[in-house]
Design a protein that fits this description.
Glycerol-3-phosphate (1)-acyltransferase, alpha/beta, globular, seven-stranded mixed β-sheet, 238 residues
Length: 238
């Protein structure tokens, strides 16, 4: 039954994805506002199907005040679930994602058309420069950024190395950093077909201000974010 439910969800997920991605491409000349509304509808529809078909629900816990204005969210990466859920959970934002995703017909073209930042993860310093260059424009336009500092999906119970690029972007633009933890990988594992029923918990921590922080302190601040996320993961892992 688990396999059948997962199969049904996957078929509906891709139908929903390619239908709404096509709609985004058609309406893109009208501006980002329409594209973001469709993206949010895509997220909400998929979350509804996950609850109805796979029995996966979620809750969001906020630590402190919700941030106002653009921020850099530094999020734990365990699953495909967070890419589905974040457009519903978070205010309008742009992803930093691996460039290969933009090569996927229709869906990838949609990501590119909306202005998400696709990087070559092997490019090193040139990738960091691209994030800073494009991220600055995005933050100045009023959108937030979502970055996975571990760079790839990490198995539940483990913590990867945190790249300081996201913190560097926040410092360079004087916007807060917001750590985000979740346990989605326990129900929807990396590259797994089956999706187990249960409740996913997301913790959005208090914003960390970067105004007045020197670029030379980005590694220290990155470690603070890592420590915060690691602490939250211990609270919610199952």
């Amino acid at each position: 039954m688990l396999t059948l439910r997962s199969l049904i969800f996957n078929l509906l997920f891709w139908l929903n994805t390619f239908t709404l991605s096509t709609l985004v491409l058609i309406l893109r000349p009208l501006g980002l506002k329409f594209g973001n509304r469709i993206g949010r509808a895509w997220s909400q529809t998929n979350l509804f199907m996950l609850r109805l078909i796979c029995g996966i629900t979620y809750e969001v816990r906020f630590k402190g005040k919700k941030p106002e204005g653009p921020v850099v969210y530094l999020a734990k990466h365990q699953s495909a679930w967070e890419t589905v859920a974040f457009p519903t959970i978070l205010p309008p934002f742009m992803w930093v994602l691996k460039r290969e995703l933009m090569y996927i017909p229709i869906f990838g073209w949609c990501l590119k058309a909306l202005g998400h930042v696709g990087i070559d993860r092997k490019a090193g310093s040139s990738a960091i420069k691209q994030i800073n260059r494009e991220g600055k424009k995005i933050l100045e336009s009023g959108y937030s950024m979502v970055i996975f500092p571990e760079g790839t999906r990490i198995t539940p119970g483990e913590m990867g190395t945190f790249n300081p690029g996201g913190v560097g972007l926040a410092i360079n633009n004087g916007v807060p950093v917001v750590p985000v933890a979740h346990n989605a990988g326990s129900l929807w594992r990396k590259n797994a077909f089956a999706k187990r029923p249960g409740k996913i918990t997301v913790i959005i921590d208090e914003a960390i201000e970067t105004k007045g922080v020197l670029p030379s302190n980005r590694k220290t601040l990155t470690e603070q974010v890592r420590t915060t996320i690691e602490k939250r993961m211990k609270e919610i892992e199952f």
